[in-house]
TrEMBL record:
Keyword vocabulary terms for this entry: Kinase, Membrane, Phosphoprotein, Transferase, Transmembrane, Transmembrane helix
Name of the protein: histidine kinase
Histidine kinase domain residues: 782-997
EC number: 2.7.13.3
PANTHER family on file: HYBRID SIGNAL TRANSDUCTION HISTIDINE KINASE C, TWO-COMPONENT HISTIDINE KINASE
GO molecular function: kinase activity
Catalyzed reactions: ATP + protein L-histidine = ADP + protein N-phospho-L-histidine
Database matches in SUPFAM superfamilies: ATPase domain of HSP90 chaperone/DNA topoisomerase II/histidine kinase, Homodimeric domain of signal transducing histidine kinase, NHL repeat
Enzyme class label: transferase
Transmembrane annotation, as ranges: 712-730
């Protein structure tokens, strides 16, 4: 009992943050067209509609779309109230004085063209008491003869002495005697008619009126009935209550309560049960949306600093902070003030419920036996980084980095009354987090490694962490190990490998503090930017097949005092036995039950039926037809969502080619394209809607018209035109060519006759040339017979004379006979060469008559021929043979060439030398004849060189320069040989011939 009073006293300074989030929208913030909101209702698709004094407004949770005279052609912008049927997608409203009848369907509002009947306006006036603008303190409308429609189209008719129930066709289904009173209130809940008097006594219509019970409606409360949603609100200065109905009973449920008196007067209201949001319209302050959260933030009202780190459960329904404060899920129970000035990064409980708290270089144990009034302090030389109690009641202590590389992990047996630390000398890495596996191995998070320590066999295994600067380790229900880091998100550690999970869209998971797992297998991850919920199955599936992951984000809009949660401590979250989770933050302790959290998932349907261009709005169904005038189009996505905008994940892909990729729209609800090419393009838009991590995909066809010159028929026309022009041009060309051919045929006929005459003439010429060649052959034969024979006889005679003169005494006669013999022999050889040369060019014989011959033999034969003449001129002829083997040459032609070159050298050399060299290199024969004679003038040398390069018979100057070298050049041309001449006057001449062999 004393404890009860003590706790009650402490409640005075224990403080729990109000569990709601309120946001205002008004004309001042440019959200609403005007601040007087007269009625509120959802439509079939989840959009919220409101009427104001300056337009009809549709709200999708983020943006307001206004319908007024500018886009609906209304006469007035002052709208009255909403009526109709939500389920049938049929809402309507009127403007002031019933000037315009506005029909709301398919998520948009249009003005009806037909005139408004008096019967319709009369019924509308009589409906006013149950439309959602009824906010009078006491009901005093005259409701007689009013029709109250249910959602199925049936209606109740209130008369003086009875209430009748009609079906939608107007047939009477039942009647109940009832005496009408203008002070009674008549309304529907769940399509059943309820009559309530001003004292709260109510009756329920069921074939007859059942006098049921009474509800206590607070005095001076304001009543608001939303006819379209059938919600009956009771508003006081601090509370908003909702009348709820069971089978035959009504009761009041508090939706919203605030500590201060409300500073506005509600005019209309709507409660979104699914999203747990309360929409309230006012007369002059606009719209407020109250999110009724299931998160609580606990703070100590007496403390200025409510920055929390480590917490740990101390009983089934209570937990203790590292400051020494004990809380339950609702409030501060007691402040033990165990650690008011020290750090809060580590706290643990041993199995005796002793509290261990780290404080810089100290570890303090507060003893349960003395109700935590006594304590034991253990001092260390190093700063304590973290503490942890394992299942064997052993306290593990990790220390920060030590420059001396001493042991930085110690253990204490918590069963010992006197705590004695034992250091693990084989672990020298600093440790900032401990975790225990199922087999009782201890995981230690170091700066660059994760250490696994098995106490049974004293084995240590180190796993490098790479880029993962580990902040905490979480072992989930299926024994998988998950790692949270400071700057690299979170990963699955399996088989000593880190499998990194992707970030959320906004990169909030870049710094992940710690993880907890609920009964549904969902992870709750605290970050510096709020709390993230994710389905573990989707994480594992992503690692298997790279499937998408849905991350659900909670932030200050869900009731937190700050988005920044705290990590870098142990434990960094706690779980009570009653299922509540505790996460420390920079401002308070966030407490919630994961099964009770209001999860507003973006799982609803979305719609793509509107496009904005540069100067107009286009509505369409599945196919959008654009023009080429508006180069930019913005495709709008209609999606009513009233949760955190960070949970919206839209992606779009426009198929223009084979490599089109999905574009992340983040939390935007539109995508723009500029200068789309002509043709039919398919636009895919998909949304990740809930923890199933499956996409909802929709597609539309965008038809961009071709300009006339881009159309197929125009291209076909141009093709046919070009083809016709081509055919016409070909035809003209054909006619022209045909005419030219006729002219050419005539010319050809004339020239053919001429050619025939010429051919006949050539035949005659050929015969004459043949006869001339025959005569030349006969001439050569005659020369051979008539000249060669006497020359040969003369040579033989000169030889005999020379031989006879050897016996004479007179030396001059010897010399003369010798010269005569050699001259006769030389003349004979010259004539023989000339005849061979003539035979070659006249008969074209012996051109290819090649044989394997020794060059030395040919050259020596010529040296013998010219030796006497050379000696007569005091000339010495030498020969140098560098050939390696016999070569295949035309002996006759080579004889003539060497003969002429040696003859020229002998003629032009007196008292000198003639050197002949022969060499073979790379299938070529090099024969050079070099003399020391008079040399060759430059004019003659250039003449022969140019003649060799460009041999033209008609330019020969034989009469000026002799016949010998011309004969050599002609023969070299026939053999495809080459000639080089090197000469200087009065020094000598060197002639080199080059032949293939």
């Amino acid at each position: 009992m004393n404890r009860f009073y003590f706790i009650f006293f402490l409640f005075q300074f224990g403080y729990s943050q109000q569990n709601f989030y309120e946001k205002w929208y008004s004309a001042d913030t440019e959200h609403l067209p005007q601040n007087s909101v007269k009625s509120i209702s959802p439509d079939k698709y989840g959009f919220i509609w409101m009427t104001t004094e300056n337009g009809l407004v549709r709200f999708d949770g983020e943006k307001f779309k206004v319908y007024n005279s500018s886009n609906t052609n209304t006469v007035s912008n002052r709208f009255l109230y909403l009526s109709g049927n939500i389920q049938q997608d049929s809402l309507s409203s009127f403007t002031e004085d019933y000037s315009d009848n506005i029909f709301i369907t398919n998520r948009k509002a249009t003005k009806l063209k037909q005139k408004i009947s008096k019967e319709l306006t009369s019924e509308y006036d009589n409906k006013r008491f149950y439309l959602n603008h009824n906010n009078k303190n006491r009901l005093n409308f005259d409701l007689l003869y009013s029709k109250i429609h249910d959602t199925k189209g049936n209606y109740y008719l209130i008369e003086k002495n009875k209430i009748s129930f009609f079906d939608k066709k107007g047939n009477t289904k039942s009647e109940v005697k009832h005496k009408y009173s203008s002070t009674n209130d008549y309304f529907l809940i769940k399509n059943e008619l309820i009559c309530m008097d001003p004292k709260g006594n109510y009756s329920l219509y069921k074939d007859k009126f059942l006098n049921l019970d009474k509800i206590n409606i607070p005095t001076n409360s304001k009543i608001i009935y939303n006819y379209l949603s059938q919600q009956y609100f009771v508003c006081t200065n601090k509370k908003i209550l909702l009348v709820k109905k069971t089978t035959n009973k009504l009761y009041l449920k508090t939706l919203h309560e605030q500590s201060n008196i409300r500073n506005y007067i509600p005019r209309c209201a709507y409660y979104d049960i699914k999203n747990n949001k309360l929409f309230i319209g006012t007369d002059n302050k606009g719209l407020t949306i109250i999110t009724l959260n299931k998160f609580k933030v606990l703070t100590n009202k007496k403390n200025i600093n409510n920055n929390y780190y480590s917490t740990i459960p101390i009983s089934k329904n209570e937990f203790i902070t590292a400051k020494g404060e004990i809380y339950n899920k609702d409030e501060l129970v007691i402040d033990l003030k165990l650690n008011t000035l020290g750090n809060q990064y580590g706290i643990t409980l041993d199995l005796q419920k002793n509290i261990w708290i780290q404080n810089d270089n100290k570890l303090i144990r507060f003893n349960k036996a003395t109700n935590y009034k006594s304590h034991t302090i253990i001092n260390f030389n190093l700063e304590v980084a973290t503490i942890f109690c394992d299942s064997k009641n052993k306290i593990w202590i990790g220390f920060k980095n030590d420059s001396n590389k001493l042991a930085v992990v110690a253990t204490i047996n918590a069963y010992n009354k006197k705590p004695i630390p034992i250091f693990l000398k084989h672990i020298v890495e600093p440790v900032n987090f401990f975790a225990e596996t199922e087999d009782h191995s201890i995981l230690m998070a170091g700066k660059k490694t994760i250490i696994t320590y098995n106490e049974t066999n004293n084995k240590i295994k180190r796993i490098p962490t790479g880029k993962n600067d580990v902040r905490s380790i979480f072992i989930c229900k299926d024994k998988n190990i998950w790692i949270c880091t400071y700057s690299n998100g979170f990963s699955l550690l399996k088989n000593d490998i880190f499998y990194k999970l992707p970030y959320d869209t906004n990169l909030f998971l870049n710094s992940a503090h710690c993880i907890n797992e609920d009964k549904d297998g969902h992870f709750w991850i605290s970050t510096n930017k709020g709390l993230i919920e994710v389905d573990k199955k989707s994480l594992l599936k992503h690692l298997k097949d790279n499937s998408p992951i849905y991350y659900h984000h909670y932030d200050a809009k869900n009731g937190f005092l700050t988005n920044e949660f705290n990590g870098g401590c142990q434990p960094c979250n706690s779980t009570l036995e009653n299922g509540y989770y505790i996460y420390p933050s920079l401002n308070g302790l966030v407490v919630f039950h994961p099964e009770k959290v209001n999860k507003i998932l973006p799982s609803g349907d979305f719609y793509i039926n509107e496009v904005e261009t540069e100067n107009k709005t286009i509505h369409f169904n599945d196919t959008l037809f654009t023009d080429r005038v508006n180069n930019r189009i913005e495709v709008k996505i209609d999606f009513p969502y009233y949760g955190n905008e960070n949970n919206i994940h839209f992606e779009a892909k426009l198929q223009l080619g084979d490599n089109d990729k999905w574009t992340n729209l983040f939390n935007e609800k539109s995508i723009s394209y500029t200068n789309l090419p002509p043709g039919n393009h398919t636009l895919f838009i998909r949304k990740l809607g809930d923890f199933s991590s499956k996409y909802q995909v929709k597609k539309i066809t965008i038809c961009v018209p071709f300009l006339y010159y881009e159309t197929l028929w125009f291209k076909v026309f141009i093709f046919l035109l070009i083809a016709g022009l081509f055919i016409y041009t070909v035809r003209l060309r054909y006619n022209y060519i045909e005419k030219k051919n006729q002219e050419l045929e005539q010319i050809i006929d004339e020239r053919t006759n001429t050619l025939i005459k010429t051919v006949n003439t050539l035949k005659i010429t050929k015969n004459n040339l043949t006869q001339e060649i025959i005569q030349q052959k006969k001439l050569i034969g005659t020369i051979s017979h008539d000249i060669k024979s006497p020359l040969k006889f003369l040579t033989i005679t000169a030889k005999h004379l020379n031989e006879k003169s050897l016996f004479l005494v007179d030396n001059s006669i010897k010399e003369e006979t010798k010269v005569m013999h050699e001259s006769a022999n030389q003349l004979y050889r010259f004539v023989e060469n000339l005849i061979d040369y003539s035979k070659i060019f006249i008969g074209h014989k012996d051109m290819n008559q090649q044989e394997k011959k020794n060059i030395t033999w040919i050259i020596n034969e010529k040296i013998k021929l010219f030796k006497s003449i050379a000696e007569a001129n005091a000339v010495i002829i030498t020969y140098k043979d560098f050939t390696t083997s016999q070569v295949i040459v035309n002996k006759k032609i080579l004889n003539i060439i060497i003969h002429n070159l040696l003859d020229n050298a002998t003629k032009n050399t007196v008292n000198g030398t003639i050197t002949i060299e022969a060499n073979t290199t790379k299938n070529k024969i090099y024969i050079s004849i070099e003399d020391t004679g008079t040399g060759m003038p430059d004019e003659i040398r250039n003449y022969y060189i140019n003649l060799h390069k460009n041999f033209e018979t008609d330019k020969l100057a034989i009469q000026n320069y002799g016949f010998g070298l011309h004969m050599v050049l002609e023969l070299l041309r026939l053999l495809k040989g080459d000639l080089k001449i090197y000469s200087k006057e009065n020094i000598g001449t060197k002639v080199v011939i080059i032949l293939d062999y």
